[in-house]
Automatic annotation (TrEMBL):
Species assigned in the record: Candidatus Uhrbacteria bacterium RIFCSPLOWO2_01_FULL_47_24
PROSITE patterns in alphabetical order: HEXAPEP_TRANSFERASES (PS00101)
Keywords: Repeat, Transferase
Secretion signal, residue range per the UniProt entry: none
Stated name of the protein: Glucose-1-phosphate thymidylyltransferase
A UniProt-annotated Pfam family: NTP_transferase
Domain Mannose-1-phosphate guanyltransferase C-terminal: 275-340
Alphabetized SUPFAM superfamilies for the sequence: Nucleotide-diphospho-sugar transferases (SSF53448), Trimeric LpxA-like enzymes (SSF51161)
Residue span, Nucleotidyl transferase domain: 3-236
Source domain of life: Bacteria
Molecular function terms, GO-annotated: transferase activity
InterPro entries from the UniProt entry: G1P_thy_trans_l (IPR005908), GMPPB_C (IPR056729), Hexapep_transf_CS (IPR018357), NTP_transferase_dom (IPR005835), Nucleotide-diphossugar_trans (IPR029044), Trimer_LpxA-like_sf (IPR011004)
Amino acid sequence: MRKALLAAGGRATRLRPITHTLNKHLIPLANKPMLFYGIETLVKAGIKEIFVNVNPGEMELQKVLGDGSRWSVSIKCIEQQGGPLGLAHIVKNAQSYIGNEPFIFYLGDNVILDSIGHMVEKFQRDNLDMCLAFAHIANPKQFGVAEIVNGKLVRIIEKPENPPSDLAQTGIYLYSPKIFEAVKAIQPSPRGEYEISDANTWMIEKGYNVGWVEVPGWWKDTGKPEDLLEGNQFIMSHFRFEDNKNGAKIGERVQIQGRIQIGEGTQLDENVLVRGPVIIGKNCVIKNSYIGPYTSIGNEVEIYNTEIENSIVFDAVDINAGTRIVDSIIGYNAAVNSAHATLPLGHKLIIGDNTVVEI
């Protein structure tokens, strides 16, 4: 299996205002675009060619991904003709690029750090036409849900009111070229999209050789702000902290506790406490502040007189809040400034690019 189709389009309305100005798949988790984790997962599975589905007119992803040479693979972006019409439409749109070969279809907003090599092995060993990955979740109503009878997958129901199980369809699909028959045969759902669940069910009903696996370890669909924060926590919990200070300038009154990664050119001075896991980018200035666990801070960020934890801070942010910030996502070039002392402590912020907020 040499090819993969990586979905990186869509509107990501649940992540606005961040996604008004940034493709969702470029949102940083642990200071790295989330799409990079999907690429790394595919590369570990032996993929050599990756076709990235993007929205019509998309330009930013192409600049960030390049030709794939940094991962020693070939990457080509392809526009979804007709706009976002569902996941099955993405597959149909990519047929001329995939050709008559098996491939992995991978949703770029999935976060999974475990290998999918076992899934590829099962697909090849059992000579499957389709292999799907499922995960046990608390609220499966928001996903395609598996109906399994005596261990056999009989159908997938998209966003069911009464789920037949707690096994949600994750964004990892292995297909033979026969999937192209399915995506051409199905009709749009009531919401006007070509559902991948319908295509998968069509494959099952037509008697093709279908298998399924449970995702090992942890899986997350990063569709909402709280999902992004949880994904950030998970990645930072498993992050390899190497060369953790990189020659950063650390003042005498600075306390560093736990696992910390600090980029080159960063200054920590005056009364600063950093309690990991924390990742701080390059050329930042942090003074008279507390940086708490599960906080990732981008490059060229300045933080003064602020406590912040369990948050994602993009590049070029300026924070001088005089208060405590928790569970927040602060977009590129945003400024958070203190107008006066306020109560209660613990403001929650989801701030888009170029925003200025006084609290």
